[in-house]
């Protein structure tokens, strides 16, 4: 969003503090006044906006301020000679720019912002007494002011802001552009939202185009009567779908590799990757070396210690897998069979529809709980590298989805062999699950946002009963603050576990760490496959609509 020095400054960070009265605003050592002065000292541009119930401090950083922060962070960036070197502001022209022409990527800017705003420390040799609402707060030596005010509850939230120019451009050229139904402006999405969202919508656009073949083929098989050849149709259909899935997966791997190369996202060779050739990550090797040093120079004892360490990893993985399998067998399997049996016994279609709705509602919480348990369990595993860790999480969550998707199908198909009931069941589940998904991902967040707006306006009207006129939001920053964090995933735990907080999400109302592309294309494919059940343009519409309505 920040380009060269002549480019217009864009406010990218918002800090929420309580609204002050006139007396507190005039205090020299007021917490908010000192915080604003500290922001200006580090080179940030500050704009203060008075909201209905809170005050918003909007922050922007010139490219020089970001460049010097990047140099202090010793940030590595790709250069024109193909090497990743430590960034230096004096030699900024030697480093490659982003597709939109800016010097820093989406996540690099927020990493610099995090360093700047949380680097406002007390550099004096004594504590400073700050005041807020008649209360004194001690700002200790070498303590971050923002951390201190957050712990006191004075700073309510720090969140990223949207660029109005980019917002209008995305709305016209992406979310509301229904002519190019499957095309996605990937370069713009990457520059603004980061790697994670760009890969997701790249996959979604490709998936929407490729899904045309099985959709048309399935429609033909459903509506056409093949007569005596009917017994051959279903095997051919199944074989075609399997072949389609294999081809799609291979072409997606190529497209994903081309995308990462085009966006200049690569994993430079490092010490940890050199040891990964041996099947061990650097952290694991360090632990093993520590064990070896503690034992001594005896090779036999060193070998025994390494073997114990390796077997401990196997046992922990076996324990976690056993927990997941037993949980599925003892908890989820009876629930799935009970639902399938009730659906077969009940004759009323209305009652069946209600039963399916209750089932879909409950199963979402089963999935959420199971995903959280899986994400926590892998933290206690000794995995050799990041790829093994991601695979372990996928296998655990896949078991949950497999049971939900197929146990009812197998029950009807193998026990009752009632194809008509099975067909009706699948149609009902598909329709109701889509309705629930749209309600949970779009309608419910919008209702929460509307209620927050109503409550804020109502409280303001109660406080100023004597005033006439309608209370309205004066700035868009207050609307962004009231909006809930966006979550368009039916498997948040899988997503969080795979990316492990390394890829910041502009939807989450916080400032995250640096970006790391996922190292395993298979994992991204599995993640996106679980999520890609709606059209790419419709997903982009709801995604942008939720942020910028």
From TrEMBL:
Keyword Transmembrane applies: yes
Q: Which InterPro entries match?
A: Anoctamin, Anoctamin_TM
MF annotations from Gene Ontology: chloride channel activity
Residues covered by the Anoctamin transmembrane domain: 189-489
Where would you say this protein principally sits, based on its record?
A: membrane
Provide the alphabetized UniProt keywords.
Answer: Membrane, Transmembrane, Transmembrane helix
GO CC, alphabetical: membrane
Residue ranges crossing the lipid bilayer per the database entry: 189-211, 231-252, 322-342, 393-414
Annotated membrane topology: Multi-pass membrane protein
The entry's localization annotation reads: Membrane
Please state what the protein is called: Anoctamin transmembrane domain-containing protein
Q: Which organism is it from?
A: Rubroshorea leprosula
